[in-house]
Amino acid sequence: MLSGSAIVTPVHQMQQYYRLGSLDNCSGKWGALVDCLKLKTKSSQEVSEILETREKEKTHIWSFRTPEEAASHWNKLFGHLDNDK
């Protein structure tokens, strides 16, 4: 879904300039529009497969750990706090 109104507003551009140091040239939005139009010509099954594949290829913000890995990581980062008591 392409939300064009957020792209052209001065507020959006100022946020981009503040956060990234440059104005948004909207190239990502044009790519999303072209992609959307290409997907519209495919069957719903093809679209589902394409979107599932893309989702699997994305790097996610969360890294999944086993309970043992999580405990080890937690202790590495915050284990020193237990010694202060």
UniProtKB/TrEMBL annotation:
It comes from the Eukaryota. This is Uncharacterized protein.
